[in-house]
Amino acid sequence: MKRILMIEVSPRGGESASRAVADTLAARLAALHPSAELTRRNLAAEHLPHLDETTLRAISTKDPVEAGNLNEAARRSDHLTDELLNCDLLVIATPMWNFGIPSALKAWVDLVVRPGRTFQYGGEGVVGLAKDKKAILVLASGGVFTEGPWRPWDFVEPYLRQILGFIGITDVQTVRAEGMNIPTLARDAVPKARKAVEDLVL
Ligand SMILES: Cc1cc2nc3c(=O)[nH]c(=O)nc-3n(C[C@H](O)[C@H](O)[C@H](O)COP(=O)(O)O)c2cc1C
């Protein structure tokens, strides 16, 4: 394991459950792979741009002249895409917001899921180009989604697994701090997730 990329999304700093669990995971990874380079990218501090017309054209084109006129957001997209393609392990630590991912994470997805870079259309459909990587999802939510009546409302894990699979990352494990807004569950949610981190196969 040479490079680990950790995408962190919560803006809640020290109060964030997903970040607390990500910290535990980072410590375990550092112990297991002391020579690996760990990049922690805090999307809450980055304000990644949404795709506008110029950026979209610049990151979609195969025309080198048009690509040569890359704007700032497209350069950022290049950088984030290189960072993703160069990692061996991708960690995404995110809250559930309104049953889906926060828009900051969606902005990152929109900047790295790119034809010709992380996927391509082949004769038999789509081929993911982000090969030989593993991923770990660290998910925090106010409710419980691994079982019970709210399970169909989870548009976080199914979406992330789907989009990662689309670009070629199919070895995905999940750790959850769930029930953060349910008084009887909240206190144990992070300790339980930290324990689950210790049990991950890394
Ligand atoms: C804007 C916002 C929307 C939220 N939407 C949901 C939701 O749809 N379902 C849910 O179970 N919890 C929801 N929550 C609760 C968070 O998922 C929960 O507080 C979680 O711990 C946030 O992750 P963090 O602690 O890493 O910031 C929401 C919280 C916020 C601030």
Automatic annotation (TrEMBL):
Q: Could you say which EC number(s) this protein's record lists?
A: 1.6.5.-, 1.7.1.17
Molecular function GO labels: electron transfer activity; FMN binding; oxidoreductase activity, acting on NAD(P)H as acceptor; oxidoreductase activity, acting on NAD(P)H, quinone or similar compound as acceptor
Return the broad EC class. Answer: oxidoreductase
Q: Kindly name one Pfam family recorded for this protein.
A: Flavodoxin_2
Any idea where the Flavodoxin-like fold domain is?
Answer: 2-199
Its subunit composition reads: Homodimer.
State its role: Quinone reductase that provides resistance to thiol-specific stress caused by electrophilic quinones.
Q: Which protein family is it in?
A: Belongs to the azoreductase type 1 family.
Q: What is this protein called?
A: FMN dependent NADH:quinone oxidoreductase
User: What gene, per UniProt, encodes this protein?
Assistant: azoR
